[in-house]
Design goal:
The protein has 99 residues and is mainly alpha-helical. 72% of the residues lie in helices and 4% in strands. It is elongated, with a radius of gyration of 21 Å.
Length: 99
């Protein structure tokens, strides 16, 4: 597989994970806000299981595991581009030492 194809796939996965992280965070924040706890007329301590496709607990799990996947993909992204990062950093400091 060509290097450009690998980079494209990695960046596409990274972008999709970021999008899903944002969507799940938005749902947790606005559609399924957490309550203050306490007694709710027999609904229990969790507020009766409010849902938006999944329960709040499931959305939190999805959000957390998406964050783990983002960290893994980010680390892979840095590892793949490490030589470029080192090169550009050295180039930057060389130019600033001349000035």
């Amino acid at each position: 597989m060509r290097k450009a194809t690998k980079n494209y796939i990695l960046n596409a996965v990274f972008g999709l994970l970021l999008l899903f992280q944002g969507i799940s965070g938005f749902i947790i924040w606005f559609a399924l806000p957490g309550g203050g706890g306490g007694y709710r007329g027999g609904a229990g301590l969790q507020g009766g299981g409010a849902m938006f496709l999944f329960t709040r607990h499931t959305w939190l799990g999805i959000h957390e595991w998406t964050a783990v996947a983002l960290v893994v993909v980010f680390a892979l992204h840095i590892a793949i581009h490490w030589r470029w990062i080192v090169y550009v950093t050295k180039l930057y400091f060389k130019q600033h030492n001349k000035a």
